[in-house]
């Protein structure tokens, strides 16, 4: 008989995992403490933008294979495997991760599970968490119920969440005191049969793989952005430099795009949480380079603000600036730690009139920073603008030609914060162009 699966937390990770588990043929219940979110999901409505996921959600809500609840009692007596996919946001008092949601999920599960079951942690956590949770589960488990814990980090990217979940690059199984490998192999049988590499290891390694991967990606981006600072001073072409580096298979071209830097709900918070955790472990210098990675990244935002100030000079106060893109990356409506939104608000605070257009991110950005002028179209945003900023590389922005904007803008000035336009072509059309890693 097929395993019954519960997924605790129906945010980005949990909602995707639940829908994909249903697609793999399991019966699934998603649980969240947010009643309104559960009601919407039960109607097949996704509270965020993610390609392919709405179709999958609707399909399996309709088939009855995917249900939603707020009741731990319901999942505790029903499921064989419980995935924990709740958030671990940055703590408000500092750099570390807020573990209260993970701890609450584990405790609630332990109190409500009525038969032997496997609990699988997927959330991104500080190393040492799984070992701590194993003890927490034992403390709160009902008498006679054996709860095993495994750690199985998630590597999905926003915008590719379904694809990354269905066909991951690798699976990592962190196994604790009770051996749970066979059950994990059953859960992931489809991917394993398709040849997905699997790493079976201990708790600590599995927790570290996740944060190490994000730290490496962040470092790679800041590495090229540090060279962008050099080419901005000395001249040279940062894109060509990245291409030439990327041909070396040991380096690779991916995540070497210079730009306004990384943002989102993962990379920035994860590198800060990792530094904080290793400091707690008495290794404060070990991850010191990540502070530098963070600083290089934040300096990219300063660079765009300074370029805008330089291009507008004493016209900035009251000038209209069009900001194209406000989500932290394309194909996402997520504005958490978005470099684009940060730049937009800073220019607003400096006195500019900032008109924003993002194909999906406007509503989330407006909730965080309502005072910008959110536009329904790119053309409305650029109408009368003295400066255009391209800050998220949505396809519709990458396809822009100078002639598309010329009838509307007041001044032909653009900052390409993602280096996706043909700069020479725009300059040939009379535009003043600034870009990342480029002398101005
Ligand atoms: C990231 C990781 O890529 C996933 O593997 C991981 O599972 C996820 O975090 C997580 O921990 O949950 P995500 O935050 O969705 O995924 O976004 P990425 O595609 O990694 O992009 C992060 C940021 O880096 C974006 O702001 C993007 O614009 C920026 N970036 C990316 C660059 O500035 N340059 C690049 O070359 C690549």
Describe the protein in words.
With 440 residues, the chain is of the alpha/beta class. It has three domains: 4-196, Rossmann fold; 211-292, N-(1-d-carboxylethyl)-l-norvaline Dehydrogenase, domain 2, CATH 1.10.1040; 298-435, Rossmann fold (3-Layer(aba) Sandwich). It is 45% helix and 14% strand. It has helices spanning 12-23, 35-42, 53-63, 72-78, 100-112, 129-140, 161-166, 181-187, 189-193, 203-234, 238-246, 267-280, 288-312, 339-349, 362-368, 378-382, 395-398, 402-405, 423-428, and strands at 4-8, 27-31, 66-69, 81-84, 117-121, 147-151, 171-175, 198-202, 320-324, 353-357, 373-374, 387-390, 413-416, 432-435. Strands 3-2-1-4-5-6-7-8 form an eight-stranded mixed β-sheet, sandwiched between helices. A six-stranded parallel β-sheet has the order 11-10-9-12-13-14. Helix 15 links the parallel strand 10 (353-357) and strand 11. Helix 1 crosses helix 3 (53-63), helix 5 (100-112) packs parallel to helix 6 and helix 10 (203-234) runs parallel beside helix 13. The radius of gyration is 24 Å and the shape is globular. The N and C termini lie far apart (65 Å). The mean pLDDT is 97. The chain binds uridine-5'-diphosphate-glucuronic acid.
Write the layout of secondary structure elements.
Blueprint: E1 4-8, H1 12-23, E2 27-31, H2 35-42, H3 53-63, E3 66-69, H4 72-78, E4 81-84, H5 100-112, E5 117-121, H6 129-140, E6 147-151, H7 161-166, E7 171-175, H8 181-187, H9 189-193, E8 198-202, H10 203-234, H11 238-246, H12 267-280, H13 288-312, E9 320-324, H14 339-349, E10 353-357, H15 362-368, E11 373-374, H16 378-382, E12 387-390, H17 395-398, H18 402-405, E13 413-416, H19 423-428, E14 432-435
Parallel strand pairs: 1-2, 1-4, 2-3, 4-5, 5-6, 7-8, 9-10, 9-12, 10-11, 12-13, 13-14
Antiparallel strand pairs: 6-7
The chain binds uridine-5'-diphosphate-glucuronic acid.
EC number: 1.1.1.22
Keywords: NAD, Oxidoreductase
Organism: Paeniglutamicibacter cryotolerans
